[in-house]
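User: Fold this, then the next.

Assistant: Folding the first:
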Amino acid sequence: MGVTKRKTKSSIPTGMHAFMTWLANYLAQINAFIAGPNAPDGYPYFYPRAINRWTTKVVPAITNLQTEFTPVSTKGTHTSAQTKQFDADRKTFLSTLLRPFNAEFVTKNSAFNVNNRATIGILPVASTARTAAGTTVEQFFATFKSLGSCVYEIHGKLTADATKGGTPDGKITQMSYSIVARVAAGAVQPAPPAGPSECTTQDVNTHALFSKDFEIENAGKILYIYFRWFDIHNQEKSGPWSILYTINLA
């Protein structure tokens, strides 16, 4: 039996003053979620990749918009050139930074419930609908291809002998891993993590086939990594964790 799923878009104010008021709240709320406690499932609301995008790209752009908005916010204190510049920069910010960030890390973040999204100021609005076939979530099976410099192509599969990858509908790839140094010759290597909860790093990817950079400075170290199919809407419907994969990084 198929189930109906809806695509969503974000409701962001379009008026200049309303938008800037919303943006100030958005900035404060995202910073609070990053600095605050973890989500109910024990994992961070935002993973390192999202935090990096936020701090190095989105926040500086918000600061720039707030600076440009100061002179144009009051009648008689701005020029038409300043207003045009602000409008142009706001459109660029929305299309290249804010909407992509929301689409990847906020509106589909299963850690956020409706109340969370309302607090942030991102309320999903129904648009088009499609029918998706029901899928039984199986264990994640992975294969690896070294691309050099500790970059690996990871191929997620639904069965161990599958020749092609595939992602269950509504699921993304979740990873939990640790990278550890090798001990000196003659010493005993510490035991690997007994489960994903013992790993030091968590990350996600929206694809079943993707490249992952484990950083060249980790060459020669050991990667311990688990995977699972993570449900972006209902975490309790996520698949089981995979076996532990051990990779000698190179």
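Now the next one, as you asked:
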Amino acid sequence: MKVALFDWAHGGHHAIYLRRFAEAVAGHADVVVAASDATVEQVAGAPAETISLGPSRPDIDGAGLRRADRRVLARELALLEDIERRAAPDHLLHVYADAVLPQLLVHRRFRMPVSVLLFYPRAHYPRAFGTHLGRVERAKANAKEFVVAAWRRRADANAVLALDEEAARRWSARRGAPAYWLPEPTVPRVDLPDRERKRSGCILYGALAERKGIDLVAQALTLEPTAMRLTIAGEAAEAFRPALERYVREMVRSGVEVDLRARRQEEEKGLLALASAKCALLPYPRHDGMSRVLVEACSVGTPVIVHDRGLLGHLVREHRIGRAVDCRDPSALREAILALAGEGADTTAYDAALARFAARFSEERFETAAIAPFRKRP
């Protein structure tokens, strides 16, 4: 059996997902990874044949309704057809299918079964997590649910995977292709620093962009003079760098010791950076879906502060692995940061909960979920 993993996007954790998928599936099938030039370079050494899709997918908005976005999505379908011809896989998994799923729905039937991984379902947020969705948000979320339901009824739809366990559970209760919860890929073990000797301050880690709430952290830490260490680590989009540097200057003037590492972090170095902080900040004001940084932080025993919205807010409250606050409220965010990362703050009370949460994302559990779509069904 041959399985093709397709992901034209690049940046963030895309290469990690592809590598972990390839490692999990390779023991059960031949694997082909179809990805952008940059991602192919990053997955070198994975147990898979690689096919380059050329430059990575241009950024598109979430709806994909602009003319330029439609051209990008049409190109993505053409690349999928090309992989269908060149690799002739028995199964294909699109590892980042949210934007292109409406186009897949009306596309001709593929010769191989197709599975999709969806990162951003949210129609269940109000009932499941108590997250308010505005009228436009609700309409978009419900439209996505309609597309998912219609896709699952196609003859070539093999499976739908979601990083949101509640979304997968709800889909499974309805007819159509199977739906599976995919736990975050396994986080490698690293030698951790001694907690009492090494941990200090807080960290904002991951792809650096305006949507990540760095402005909210700056507002919170400049309400009054703040003697604290803040590490900001991750790849920054060129267009965002001037704003990022401005936020850093504002915090430094307020007394914050800022360690800015605006470059792509290798996985192990990123984990060590997370392990060196007393808490990790995920103040994403409009984030939907899961966050790998959440799992990475918990895996190294670092509690988190998240914006109290959607899946992230629910997980932090449910598993007691940090604090979920309205990060748009500078005073509330500041109080949470000082409580977890201020001078004399002791976060050892979170240790047991963090370990339990991290254990949910074991190598065995991920491999079981990763190969589930490709197993023969009775």
